[in-house]
Amino acid sequence: MGARLIAVPYDSGNRNRRMGRGPLAFLDGGAARRLAPICGTVIERVVEHREGYPMEVPMTFELQRGVAAELSAALDAGEFPLLLAGNCHNTVGAVGGYASRPIALAWFDAHGDLNTPETTASGFMDGMPLAMVSGRCWRRMTATIPGFRPLPDERLALVGARDFDPAERELLAGTRIPLVRCEEVQRRGAETALAAVLDSWSGSVAAVHVHVDLDVHDPRCLRANSYQPGGGLSPDQVRDCVRAIAARLPLAGGTLSAYDPATDPEGTSLEVGLELLELLARLGCAAADGAVSR
User: Fold this and answer.
1) What is the DSSP letter of 111?
2) What angle do CA 120, 121, 126 make, to 5 degrees?
3) CA atoms of 104 and 181, how far apart (whole Å)
């Protein structure tokens, strides 16, 4: 089974700026070379803005449509899809790429990503992707993504989030999306902390897409971007969580998101990200020829 690296080098509609530099940094840092011994053939694809005048909202959904097309093509080709995203909302496109396949989504992030246009205080589109995925906002626009259907709360999990806007925290409290706190992972271990979520998914989903915003990590371990709050998980704890998920359910694919090389002068975050890609590929390519392939 091969792998497909899908890079989206945009942050808030700006190409190769700030977190938009992260996807190409992973490609330039040798991601394909490091995955080749694990998966064999590794295909690199870059999703680009092509339609009209560059405005952030239309571009957001254009890029998501491009991600959906690339991920669907990867599944058709029997490749394990790995998304390198400038912004977390690119994973909304990945959900579209799986179309009707019964996947779950494990969302590792320091933030809730559950704002809507009505709750946001900043207007930052990248604070809304989990609300988009669950059908709570931008429904007309997400309907333009081929194959996209909102995921029910029961097929989502938010892991490591610790920084919420007040209205976002209130919204989360009214959902059925489970929150696995950093303290649970640190105190009980990854397998135990995730057990209830994985129990609920077993028998109802075919595989799990693992989304990792690198700011889920503790900034004392690495600095991923300028939005990273204090606290968080260590790289070992994040990897343990990924292993715990893969021990119970096949991996459908993965996302690595929101890496800004400007905050990482020593390359620590880059290396942790590459190691995480290797782990996702090793676990994903070892699954039974892709549990969600056609």
Assistant:
1) B
2) 50
3) 18
Confirm if 206 and 291 have CB atoms less than 8 A apart. yes
Distance of alpha carbon 240 from alpha carbon 246, whole angstroms: 10
Judging by DSSP bridges, how do beta strands 10-11 and 14-15 pair with one another?
antiparallel
Question: Sheet harboring 42-46: ordered strands across?
Answer: 42-46, 2-8, 79-85, 251-257, 207-213, 103-108, 156-159, 179-180
What residue numbers bound the domain in which 75 lies? Answer: 2-285
293 domain-assigned: no
Instruction: Classify the C-alpha dihedral 231-154-194-258 as positive or negative.
Output: negative
In-domain check, residue 35: yes
Q: Does residue 15 lie in a domain region?
A: yes
What is the model's pLDDT at position 287?
A: 63
User: Are the C-beta atoms of 130 and 150 separated by less than 8 Å?
Assistant: no
Spell out, as residue ranges, where the chain has pLDDT lower than 70: 287-294
Domain-located, residue 292: no
Return the residue matching tokens 């998304």: 83
The number of domains in the chain is 1
Please name the helix (run of DSSP H) or strand (run of DSSP E) that holds residue 7, with its range, or none. strand 2-8
Measure Cα distances from 114 to 121, 131, 151, 168 in Å. Answer: 12, 5, 14, 6
Contacts of 255 (CB under 8 A, 6+ apart): 82, 83, 84, 85, 88, 90, 91, 94, 209, 210, 211, 212
- The whole-angstrom separation of Cα 9 and Cα 57 is 16
The span from the first CA to the last CA of the chain, in angstroms, equals 13
Give the burial class of 121: count Cβ atoms within 10 A of its Cβ; 0-12 exposed, 13-18 middle, 19 or more buried. exposed
Map residue 81 onto helix, strand or coil: strand
pLDDT tens column, 185-219:
999 999 999 999 999 999 899 999 999 999 999 99
Residue 117 three-state SS? coil
CATH number assigned to the domain comprising residue 31: 3.40.800.10
